[in-house]
Design a protein that fits this description.
By secondary structure, the chain is mainly beta. The protein has no helices and 11 strands. Strands 2, 4, 5, 6, 9, 10 and 11 form a 7-stranded mixed β-sheet that branches. A 4-stranded antiparallel β-sheet has the order 1-3-8-7, with no helix packed on it.
Amino acid sequence: QVQLEESGGGLVQPGGSLRLSCAASGSEFSRNGMGWYRQAPGKQRELVATITNSGTTDYRESVKGRFTISRDNAKNTVYLQMNSLKPEDTAVYYCNAKVAGRFVVIDYWGRGTQVTVSS
């Protein structure tokens, strides 16, 4: 079992910044692939950014150059630094952990944190 707890969401004006954090417990964090997803009202959940256990990162096209995902294995925490925020970034942001078992990969999710970009 993996427990994930997000924090850092809130209301920010367009052009502003936020840093989301996701604290993980219950597994060997450094071995897990981690990611951030988001879901806006009336839309499907979408991938925002991922980071592998070796530190390789990937981003959806619309956030490249504005968002940065990082991890601190000593603190069992993954971060999402969001700069130059736009109203279309408004969504609930979810932390994801991919835990590799012997034959399958299991997804774990946090409860989400709301990010609202509005003037």
